[in-house]
Amino acid sequence: MESGGSSLPPFFTSVERGFMKYTAIIAAWLIAGTIGASAQVASHASTTKTAPAAAAPSSAGVPADKPVARVNGVVLTDRDLLREMYTIFPYARQHNGFPKAQEASIRQGALEMIIFEELVYQEAVRRGVTIPPERLRTAETEFRKQFSSPDEYQAFLAIEMQGKPELVHQKIRRSLMIEQLMKTDIENRSAVSLAEAKTYYVSHSSRFQVPETFSIQTISILPPRDAVKLSSEQIQTLQKRAQEALKQVKTTKTYQDFGLLAEKISDDDFRVNMGDHKVVKQEDLPPDVVKALRVLKPGTATDLIQVQNAYTIIRLNARTEARKMTFEEVKVSLREQMQKEKYERLRSSLAKQLRAKAKVEIV
C-alpha cells in the first residue's frame, strides 16, 4: 500500500506525530535551555514525555525570537522552530547538537510542521472551535505536573512566557484547538472498517502470500579464501575433508549434535552459531539445494553438495510450504496499516488545502 503525497519530507510524515503540544512545551524548553546561544534552529511540541529536569536555563540559552516565517501575518520565530527540531530529533541533547548531515532536513521538516500547526490553529479559530473549561483545567493541571518544582515553573514563566501565566493558558488552549480539529477532520475520518480491510485483502491477494521456507544448518568445507587456483594436492585434501565430514554427519542424531560438529569442522561463517541459518526463503537458495531439501525429512541431512571446489552438507530442521495467510491472521495489522496510511493522506490533503488559501512567507 502506498500513502498519499505530503507537503513534508518523508521522514516527518509519521501518523504518530501527535498534536498535544502542551505536554511537551516544557520538554523542549528544558532541552533548549541547555544548548548554547549559537543554536539557531527549532521545534513544536508533541506528545513526547518531558526530558529529565536540567538546571534552570538562562536567557542566553534560548533563541532570540527571530522571525522565520509569517502565516497570514502571524510571525513564527526561531524559538518555535528550535522546539520543533528537538521534537523531531530529541537525541540532539545527548549528541551535543543535530547531525550535520541531517540538520538541514530536520530544520526544513520542523519549519513545515510549525507552519502547518499555525494553519490548523487559524482554521480552528475560523470555525469557532471551542474547548470546554473542564478540559482546559485538566490540561493545565497536567502541564504543571511536568515541572519538578515550583521554582522550575516560575523560571519557565519568566523565560518562555514573559512572566505571564495567562500565556500558558493561551498556548494550552491553542494546542487543544489544534488537536480537536485534527481529530474531527483526520483521526475520526481515518477509521478503517473490517469490511474495508476484507475488500483490500481480497483485491491484493498476492501481498498475503507466504513463501516456502526452510530452517537449515550447514557444514561447509571450503577452499582457502585467498586461493586463486588450487593445486591437485589441495583439491584432494578438500575432497578428503568433505568425505570425512559427511561420515561424521551421518553419526549425528539431533540439532545439537550437528551444531556442535559444525562448530568444530565447518569453514563457513555460520559455524559460530551451530551452523544455523534460521529460516531461509526458497527464493534465496540455489535451485539444486531447494530440490535436495524438498525430498528430505526434517531431522535428516543431504549428501555432499559440491559447487566447484566447495562442499556443503545441509541438515533440514523444518520446512514450511508456500501458502496464503488467512484474513483472520492479518486483519488486525492490516487495519492498523490502512488506518495509518489513510490518516496520512487526509493530513496531507488538509495541509495542501489550508496552504492553498493562505499567505505563507519564509523569512
Write a brief structural summary.
This protein has 363 residues and is an alpha+beta fold. Helix content is 47%, strand content 13%.
Strand content: 5-15%
- Mean pLDDT rating: 84
Number of domains: 2
Computed over alpha carbons, the radius of gyration is: 30 Å
Mind telling me which CATH architecture of the largest domain this is?
Orthogonal Bundle
Helix content: 40-55%
Structural class: alpha+beta
Main sheet characteristics = 5 strands, antiparallel
Distance between the termini: 37 Å
What's the shape? elongated
Q: Order of helices and strands, N to C? A: HEEHHHHHHEEHHEHEEEEHE
Top CATH class of the largest domain: Mainly Alpha
Low-confidence stretches: 2-28, 30-61
How many β-strands, per DSSP? 10
Could you please say which CATH topology of the largest domain applies here?
Answer: Triger factor/SurA peptide-binding fold
